[in-house]
Model the fold of this input.
Amino acid sequence: MTAEATPAPAAQPAAGPAGSGPAGSGPAGSGPAGSGPAGSGPAGAGAAARARGATAYPRYVAGKLAGAAVSLLAVLVTSFFLFRLIPGDPVKFMTGGRPVSAEQIAVYRREFGLDLPLWQQFTHYCGKALTGDLGTSYQFRAPVVDKITEALPNTLLLTGTAFVLYTALGVLLGTRSAWRHGGPGDRLNTGLALTLYSIPSFWLGLLLIIVLSVGVGPVPGLFPTGGMESGGEEGFAYVVDVAHHLVLPVVTLVAVEYGQTLLVTRSALLDEMGSDYLTTARAKGLRDDLVRRRHAVPNALLPTVTLIFVNLGRTVAGVILVETVFSWPGLGGLFYQALSVPDLPLVQGLFFVFAAAVIVMNTLADLLYPLLDPRVGR
Done:
């Protein structure tokens, strides 16, 4: 019986181009390091991602800056028409309520351009604003830019001090609350933060004046009721006097604003606490305090950094009530004075500054975030 012929095994192909053996088949670089053209492995993919990021971020920046410019232009237009709806005649304020002739009223209107049609007033306003001229204040008879420049340092002193304090307090307490979430300290911190965050700033300011200034509380007359200085002080005594007047408005802003930073920091850190890299860090024997400070907190601070920039612009714009309650000579108090006239150029200029502060800080936060988290840029 003749055995069937067993087919011969297929001949092994000759070695092809580099990289076509067991490491991969096809063109060079198509082995385990990647399939397809050269450079398509992890190294190539990383280089391509970096290249995309290098081109994507400039486009991202250009888009954000263009959006900010459009927003500022919209604020400029809105500020002109919005405050024309305020009841009141600026000419009556400028005449002090005295009986004046029609000729005198016409002179005042012509001097400030109030006799022109509304569309001409608008074109003049936009043309001057684009050159940095926000007009002349009715009540102060001075350029609006000069009045804003004069009051701006006082507002920055108040808001800057409060901003540093409530940001540090919010991040510190938010971190501790998240790391010991569910405990008595966490419940106390979050409950107090929510309560203070829901209180209107002007109401809290009035309450502090009643308790610590007027004399109803247990420590009467401990702080001044308002203003920025007592007058007559010089040198170091002047610094102490200003700091004494600064306490109550700063405490008001800190008490109202720190809660949001605390809650955002706490929430972000809670999201990070179950991550694998924290488990790995603990498995390596790192102390719990080092795991929190070196690994968890830096990653959890990304949303908080964005909030910090947004809060800075919002604090500058939202200081009107606090400055009015405490008679602080800043932009907020100036806005209240201008609104009661109404001093239209000054109101429009201050409104533009407040809105610009929010827009600029939001834009800076948007530009910074991709640098902290590259996934945003991609």
